[in-house]
Structure formats: C-alpha cells, structure tokens
Amino acid sequence: MSGGPAVRISIESSCEKQVQEVGLDGLETYVPPLSMSQNLAKLAQRIDFSQGSDSEENGVDSEPRDGEWGKQEPEEEEDTVKFQPSLWPWDSVRNNLRSSLTEMCVLYDVLSVVKEKKYMALDPVSQDPTAGKTPQVFQLMSKKKSLATAAQLLLKGAEKLSKSVAENQENRRQRDFNTELLRLRSQWKLRKVGDKILGDLSYRSAGSLFPHHGTFEVIKNTDIDLDKKIPEDYCPLDVQIPSDLEGSAYIKVSIQKQSPDIGDLGTVNLFRRPQKNKPGTPWHIKLEAAQNVLLCKEIFAQLSREAVQIKSQIPHIVVKNQIISQPFPGLQLSISLCHCTGDKKINRSSPEKPKPDDHLYVLEHNLHQMIREFHKQQLSSVVMPHPASAPFGHKRLRLAGPMAYDKAEISSLQQSEGLLEKIIKQAKHIFLRSRTARTIDCLASRIEDPQIQAHWSNINDVYESSVKVLITSHGYEQICKSIQLQLNIGVEQIRVVHRDGRAITLSHQEQELQDFLLSQVPRLRL
Amino acid sequence: MGVTCVCQVPVAEGKSVQQTVDILHKKLEQLGAVKQGNFCVDCETYQSTVNAGGQPSKLLYVMHNSEFPLSCLALFEGGPCLVADTNFDVLMVKLKTHFQNAKGHKVECRGSRYRYCDFLIKVGTVTMSSSVRGISVEVEYCPCVVPGDCWNLMKEFMLSFLGNNVPELPTVFAAKPEGLFAPADSVDTMTQYLELFNKLRKLQITGSNVH
C-alpha cells in the first residue's frame, strides 16, 4: 500500500519479570527469571514419553537428553544425598529413559540370538482365517460337536462300570459254594479233616465243661436241577447237625400251686410252638437252633446234677426232663427241658394245655445268664492264673492278706452257690413279691375308709424288692403322715420298717402280712 | 472291721484261770451272746542278728489272728507295722540268717468267740510255752471304725459283764488323730495284743530284759 514511509514498529514483550513484592519504599522485587537450565527442566517435564516419537519432538528430545547427560554426574550426588523428586525434575525423565533403554537392550539381545538360529527361531503363528470373522452360530455348533464326543466317551465308560457291578450282584445272588463257605467261616469255627469240613458249635471255647462234642459237618448242596428255575432260597451250602441237637428246645420254669401226684410226673411237657423244620432252612438258623438246644441241655444237666448232689431239707425230685422242688410249703417249682425234634407229633389230646402265664420267662432268661456267667468264670484267672506264677484263687483274694480281711469278707468273695440254689431263691422271691402285691391290693380294695396306697420301687434286685405302703385318710393326707411302712421283700421274709425306725420281720405267710396291715389301719384313726 | 479293745482280766480270788474264764462265759451267755467257735492269736519273736552300733537289737514280732485267716502281721514295738499274706512266714524262714527266732518266747491266746448283735467278744487264755499267764478279753464293735465315737458305748457294754475290770481308752486310740481319716484297723488290734503279751511276759520274769 502506498503512503508514507514505513513506520517502524518495535514490538517489545511485556515485562517478563513478575513482581514478587513491592517494598514499602516503592521498590519492586522481581521474581528472578528461570535460568536456562531451569527452563530446560521445565520443558523436559512436559515431555510425554507415552506418545510415539514424532519429528517435531525429536529436536526437543535431543536437547533435554544432552542436557540431561551432562547434568547427571553433578546432580546425581545431590540426588543420592537427599532424594526429593520435587527438587530434581529430571527424575521421572531419567527413569523413563532408563526403562526404554532396558527394553531396547532386550530387544537387541533377542534379535541377535534369533539371528544365530541356534537357540531361538522365529516361527509364524498359524493364523486362523476364520477367527474373529466366524459367525457365532458356527462357534456354537462346533462346541456342541466337541461336547458330544466327550459325552460319548464318558457314557461308554459308565456303561462298562454298571455292567460289571450288575454282574457282581448277579454272582452274589447266585451264591456259589465258596462265598457261602466264607460267610460261614466268618461266624463259626471250621476245620478241615481229610476231605470233610467240620465245625464246632459247642460252648467249649467259651468256658463250658459239657462233654458234648458239638460237631457239625458242612456239605455241598448238589441236588439242584439246572434245567428248572433256581428257587429263591436256594443255598449251595448245607450243614448237618448231630441228631440229638435237632429241633429246638427251651427251659420251662413254672410255679404251680398244687403239687401233683408222683404218678403224674414224667409226662413230656407240651411245646409252646411247633417247629417248622423245612429241609430248606438256611444254615445259620439251623446252627443257632442246635446251639440253643445244646445250651438248654447243659443248663438242665447242671441243674439235675446239683439237685441230686446238694443236700437240702426238702429233697428235689428229678424225673426224666423235670426237676421239681418245693420252695414254700404248698408250692411247687418245676424246671423242665422241652425239646421238640419236629418228627414227633404233638400230643394234642393231653389235658395239660400250656398256660401262657405259667412259664416264668424271667427265670428262664436268668438261667441262661447264669450259665454264661459260669462259663466266663471258668475262663477267668481262677482256673488259669495270670501270670502263670500267680496263685490259684480269686484275684481279690490276693488282697485278703495285706488288707487283713476277716471271715465275712472272705466268704463274700468266694461264691459257693450252685445254679439250682440261685434259681430257687429267685423263684421264691418272685413268688413272695407277687403274693405280697396281691395281698396289699386285696386289702386296699376291701377297706374303704383309710386308703391304702402302695408305691413299688422300680429298682430292685433278683433277691430283694421294696414297696412303700401308705395308709392315709381321705382329705387328711398331709396332716396324718404317720403311717408309712417300708416293706423290703427278701427271699423268704418280709422286713417292715416303720417311719419311726422300728423294724419287724414277717415270715412268708400271707396271713401274717394281712394281719399286720390290718393292725396298722386302726392306728390311723387315733 | 470295727473298733477293738483288748484288756486283761485278773484271775478271780480263790479261783483258777479256767474257772474265771467259765464265769465270764456264763455271764456272756446270760446276756444273750451266742458262741461262734474259737479263736487264736499268737505272737512269735524274732531278733535281728545284725547289731548296728551298740544299741540292743530290735525285736520283730510276727503275729497271727484267726480273725484274719489269710493275713500275718509283723511289727516292731512302737515302730512300723506290716500287714502281709501268710507267705510272710515262709519269708521269715528264708531270712534265718538275719532274724533269729526266739522259740521259747512264743505267746498264744486261745479261747471262744461270742457274738452279741453288733459286738464280738473273745475270751481267751494267754499261754507262753504251755504255762498260763493270764486272761484276755477282746471286745469288738463291728459297725463303727472311729474309736472316739463308740468308746462310750463299748465301755458301757464291757461294764455289763466285766464289772470293775473295765479298762481305759487304749493308748493306740488316744495317740491317733480324731475322725474318719484314722480308722481303727487290724494293726491297732494287734498292737494292743502285743502290749498285753509283753506285759504278761514281764510279769513272771522279774527284772531282766526280754531277749
């Protein structure tokens, strides 16, 4: 454009220095401008190493790098003395550069190793052309196929397992001879004699002294028709028990009121249940029944031996399979061995029908218990002292010397009662107890005015029971508590203890107890 | 097991030992006691052969009581006491070299045994080498084991048939602590018998010590 002469315009930057403070005298203090190195540091901090290197930044990069290397030595010492990242702005720059150097070195090393082709080789990764480009439906189908193959394999294996298990069960049901023999051996004692297999079902190893051999034979059951269907309870193993242990037996203990004539004795007692002795009974049932028969025989043999040997005031009568004794006058206790072999027909025309409440199951059970206790005693250290140098006799008796036992204590340690005595005592007690209960109940129902209550104790002994009899007046139970009688029923006597401590012994007579209780009744009225 | 008291009954004047014993028996039977057999208490003396220093050797007494038929007691006078099995006698035979049996010093007490409810009374004659030395009476109250509790009862009972000869509480019980922790047992009985035997032994032999 035309005009006058060009005007020189001088451009001046504004005041670079900032005013730090203005003094009171108007003097301005300026912030000292950054020196060149400080400026450089500021710029270096603004470098972003994460971005790729561009040509623009090359120049910027090289300068701080040069400046950095020069500054490293003197400023490193400063750094190590007091490390404050804010003081040294080049710290982050240095770290980043150092890490990039490390990476470059590694890359260089890898490339040099690969170039030799001795320790490392480059192989192209097989590119899946369909990866990333395949549709999802295709992926689903391929997954399905692979899962199906895996499932097929597993199913095949499971089928094989289930087949083998089924076969095993089938085998077990078939029950061949050897598995049965194994089962038999796990429960009973067997031994092989020649080509026969014999077993022992007696109690001899448990301490019995009964002379019966108790041997049974194991035989193979070969009478099977393979054409026909195998029956359900077919067992390839069978046992043959001795002929005198066949059938089943039990010991009948009963208390009868009237004593029959001597002529009536000797009749075989009736059996309470007929024995079903099918030929196809499994061997364990047969063996158990035979063992039971043996035990009953032993009990009866022991009882009859004692009945004959032991002298008592009223002798016991042993006839055929019965032992009869008289615990109380007018009363008869009969112990009989009832053995039914199953061959004989039960004599139904006999007038003696088995009364269900005649048989005292408790006493039968007690007999079994006592004979087992006797067996155990035989095996105990009484017969075989432990250790072998120990003296014979009861273990507790060894203490008798050093503890200075007197005669009462010693005799209590040594049991001298036989099976028969014990069972007679128990029978006496049972009878006395039931009769006492009957007397008290009879009296209680007969007398209305003062009420008689009987509280029987739940805990009692085979030889002793107790009952508490209260005689109270209706409505005055709490006031008149004076008549409380404790009756201890023993084997032959009843001991009455009053509330104030007086004790009276009554005999087994029923009338005595009745009179006594009747005498207590008017006491209440006073 | 109960509390026992052993005492000596002096021979009645003008009567022999046997007659005094019979009088006692009669009194007991009148009381209502029941005779239940016989009893025997004996005591053997053993002297230790090993002499420690200048002290007189201690005497070991081995006693038997028919009340404890399977036991044997060995005691030193005033010292420790051992209750053992009857095999102890055999052991003493084996210890012959250490313990000499003073055979002439065996003391025995034999007599009858009476039972009166809870009491056991034994009246016996003490003999030493077949010469009668005195009469001993042992009263046992079976239910109790604490001497302090039943002493009065026993004393009263003894008064009923012994009359004036009732003894005081035996020294074995007086020395014991009270209560159930020190129950009376066989050792006390035998200690009392030993005291009685020693007393009776010294009676006839005047002056010299017992060997």
From TrEMBL, chain A:
Residues 62-73 have a biased composition (Basic and acidic residues). It is found in: Nucleus. One of its GO terms (cellular component) is core mediator complex. Its main location: nucleus. The keyword Nucleus applies. The keyword Transcription applies. Residues 47-83 are annotated as: Disordered. GO terms for biological process: regulation of transcription by RNA polymerase II. Keywords: Activator, Nucleus, Transcription, Transcription regulation. Component of the Mediator complex. Component of the Mediator complex, a coactivator involved in the regulated transcription of nearly all RNA polymerase II-dependent genes. Mediator functions as a bridge to convey information from gene-specific regulatory proteins to the basal RNA polymerase II transcription machinery. Mediator is recruited to promoters by direct interactions with regulatory proteins and serves as a scaffold for the assembly of a functional preinitiation complex with RNA polymerase II and the general transcription factors. This is Mediator of RNA polymerase II transcription subunit 17. It comes from Nothobranchius furzeri. The gene is MED17.
TrEMBL record, chain B:
Keywords: Activator, Nucleus, Transcription, Transcription regulation. The keyword Nucleus applies. GO terms for cellular component: mediator complex. One of its GO terms (biological process) is regulation of transcription by RNA polymerase II. It is found in: Nucleus. GO terms for molecular function: transcription coactivator activity. It comes from Nothobranchius furzeri (Turquoise killifish). InterPro entries: Mediator_Med20. The keyword Transcription regulation applies. Component of the Mediator complex. Transmembrane segments: none annotated. This is Mediator of RNA polymerase II transcription subunit 20. Component of the Mediator complex, a coactivator involved in the regulated transcription of nearly all RNA polymerase II-dependent genes. Mediator functions as a bridge to convey information from gene-specific regulatory proteins to the basal RNA polymerase II transcription machinery. Mediator is recruited to promoters by direct interactions with regulatory proteins and serves as a scaffold for the assembly of a functional preinitiation complex with RNA polymerase II and the general transcription factors. Its main location: nucleus. It comes from the Eukaryota. The gene is MED20. Belongs to the Mediator complex subunit 20 family.
